[in-house]
Amino acid sequence: MARPFKTFACSFRRSGLAAIAATACVATALSTPVLARGPEKIADVAEQVIEAVVNISTSQKVESRATPLPQLPPGSPFEEFFEEFFKNRRGQGDNQLPNRTPRRVSSLGSGFVIDPSGIVVTNNHVIAEADEITVVFTDGSRLKAEVVGRDQKTDLAVLRVKPTKPLKAVKFGDSDKLRLGEWVIAIGNPFSLGGSVTAGIVSARNRDINSGPYDNYIQTDAAINRGNSGGPLFNLDGEVVGVNTAIISPSGGSIGIGFAVPSKTVMAVVDQLQRFGETRRGWLGVKIQQVTDEIAESLNIKPPRGALVAGVDDKGPAKPAGIETGDVIVRFDGKDIKEMRDLPRIVADTPVGKEVEVVVLRKGKEARMTVKLGRLEDGEKPKPASVTTQQPEEKSVVQKSLGLQLSDMSDDLRKRYSIKESVRGVVVTGVDAASVAADKRLVPGSVIVAIEQEQVTAAADLLRRVEQLKKAGKKTALLLVATAGGDMMFVALPIE
After folding, report:
1. In a shared domain, residues 192 and 286
2. Domain end (from 233, 260, 279)
3. How would DSSP label each residue in 46-111?
């Protein structure tokens, strides 16, 4: 059985086989089982909005590389032949074929008009790296487009064209009001063949497909095929509730699993791109991680919820507000944080400079504080934990526990594992490959900073604390672990 994979470039890239690809796509569509007849209103909505759906045609200049003369052994009988052949091809005495004439590569996607003056929304990947962008309307007219702004994190872009008369435009609806099973209509304009209408239902909401930090997709079984990227997803009131962006498919054709960026996200991004030409997202200045069942048990949080603060930026807004490492953020600006990935999206959607109330759980008690949000810059991204290679066992190892070989910090260990001076704690010098610690990606050079939110500086103290937890009936120990570079994360390890 073929394993499904995520496909983002629903936009179609032309080549010499464009006609064949188009024919294959049509054949796929024809072989798709016919859906049960939906509401009669679908035809009315399609007729009402289809003129606002456009084709996005882009082209990009690609330089061809020169081909070097093949390297032949000295005295090869083919040496003279190849030299003569290459000289005839280039007409000069160097050892390379002449550079080929730069060629243009074209691609197709979809978009839709949101303002009669000529504002068009599409996917960023549809226009990425394009030298020329042309918007093609249902009547066949074509207008050159300029980029107003683009956002890679949500894969959205705003274009502007200059029409001679007002364009047909569509309005956004409220994606938060969508219900599972509700009918939706996907319209695109692939291959410059005109509007293509498909219908289906909302299969799921708030889908995370690991495409970016703000994943919150609408899943639909309305067919989304190549060339439909950037096209709108409508409700039965003719309002745009999403932008078709990705599919999961083993072949690149629709199998009934498509994803659209919800209109609530789209409206906020489009508004900022129109006003500033860029996005301006809120910034809290914390590193967070998921509250797993093991971590929730260690912190006595029932049911598991919130975002666990694994680090606080010294220059971020969270620190002066009083947010600390180990806090679990459960509410932000009046919105519940049910799981970790909710927080970045909510913070990003909050205006820069706004003062918001943040509710955290700290050592079993609820605390409230006010934070004035900063602005997220591109450089302010959490860095992945560095992986340290296995090193020979240290003679200074004093304890073994939790599947780990542990040692007090020393100058020799700090130098061996390149541990920052600011990092303090107990050094991991070995990891049992069959232990949970190995599964949690602890490696030699990791530093245990705290256990159960109590700082430790000696391996003996850490072991003593583990024994206390065992006597208290605890099944797991919550460790705050630092990488050699200073990045923090919480890890729950079994102690039975």
Report:
1. no
2. 279
3. HHHHGGGEEEEEEEEEEPPPPPBPP---TT-TTHHHHHHHHHHHHSSSSSBPPPPPPEEEEEEEEE
The confidence score (pLDDT) of residue 403 equals 86
Residue 386 lies inside a defined structural domain of this protein: no
Query: Which three-class secondary structure state does DSSP give residue 319?
Result: helix
CA distance 257 to 200: 11
Q: In this predicted structure, what is the pLDDT of residue 32? A: 45
Positive or negative CA dihedral for 259, 263, 269, 275? positive
User: pTM of the full predicted structure?
Assistant: 0.68
Q: What is the pLDDT of residues 128-166, one digit of tens each?
A: 888 899 999 988 899 999 999 999 999 999 999 999 999
Q: Give residue 378's pLDDT.
A: 55
Q: What is the C-alpha to C-alpha distance for residues 245 and 223, in angstroms, rounded to an integer?
A: 12
Question: Given pLDDT bands bounded at 50, 70 and 90, which one contains residue 325?
Answer: very high
The CA distance from 443 to 456, in Å, is: 18
Distance CA 340, CA 348 (A): 14
Considering only residues 122 and 432, tell me which one the structure prediction assigns the higher pLDDT: 122
Residue 16's pLDDT is what? 44
Q: What rounded mean pLDDT belongs to the chain? A: 82
By C-alpha distance, which of 182, 177, 299, 198 is closest to 244? 198
Scanning the structure block, which residue is given the tokens 């299969």? 203
HSE-CB of 391 using CA atoms within 13 angstroms: 20
Q: What angle do CA 212, 214, 215 make, to 5 degrees?
A: 75
* Contact criterion met (CB below 8 Å) for 111 and 187: no
Encoded amino acid at 117, one letter: S
Same domain membership, residue 261 and residue 136: yes
125: pLDDT strictly greater than 90? yes
Q: Interior CA angle at 298 toward 213 and 413, to 5°?
A: 75
Model pLDDT for residues 364-376, shown as the tens digit of each residue: 899 999 999 999 8
Number of domains forming the structure of the chain = 4
Same domain, 131 and 270: yes
- Report the percentage of the chain scoring pLDDT > 90: 52
Q: Which residues are catalytic?
A: 125, 155, 229
Residues 242 and 193 in one domain: yes
Same domain, residue pair 332 and 363: yes
Q: Return the residue matching tokens 């759980």.
A: 361
Res 398: pLDDT: 40
Residue 457 counted as domain residue:
yes
Domain that holds residue 75: 64-101
Q: Do 188 and 247 belong together in one domain?
A: yes
Bridge-based pairing state of the strands 183-188 and 196-207: antiparallel
Assigned domain for 121 exists: yes
CB atoms inside a 10 Å sphere around CB 434: 9
Q: How many C-beta atoms surround the C-beta of residue 439 within 10 A?
A: 11
Tokens found for residue 4: 């499904």
